[in-house]
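Because discrete structure vocabularies remain unfamiliar, we reproduce here a specimen of the format, pairing a chain with its fold in token form:
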Amino acid sequence: MSGPIVGEPLIGRAVRLDPTSLADAPDLLTAAGAPETFRWFTRPPAPFDASGMHDYVRFLMDATDIEPLTLRLVATGEVIGMTSYLDIRPEHRTLEIGWTFIAPEHRGTRVNPEMKRLLLAHAFETPIFPPASRHAGGGALRVCLKTHHLNTTSQRAMAKLGATYEGTLRNLIIMPDGSSRHSVFYSIIAQEWPAVREGLDRRLAGQSPAT
């Protein structure tokens, strides 16, 4: 990448996203709560302790095509999770949103839809990609989301978000426990973003900013 995707915090009514630093690792461990939080991750913190989370954060920060973001409550600054832009491909103006976890007590609230609203708006509406030989630069043309075939909760959330199911790639990944994962793909493309944004705004309008 030629530079960071997120230069300044992304701030909503209830949550904000800040570029992750190693100093966030202890708070991220607390927010995760238990190893089960990373059940579906292809590369979870291991061991699930301070050193494992430190190494996990370092792995994300060092990857050339991943940009991790720490999720905080606006009101208190409390760390309540993490997400990332990944598989960032400037030459095609595409990226993925993933490596996401939210503290158990904030699941099922406005946190996830507001976080996705911030991430998607930044990806599609900000000129995050510089000009290249095959394009003039600008915002994302496609944002991908994918998950484990058994993670039906995430699949329902992606569909509710307004993303389009694209298909399932079978036996794509060997999980840490040795099992095979089929990866279920969803996406939103630039032409669909206005309708997805409208749906998210309606959804968030009916929810209290308090979480």
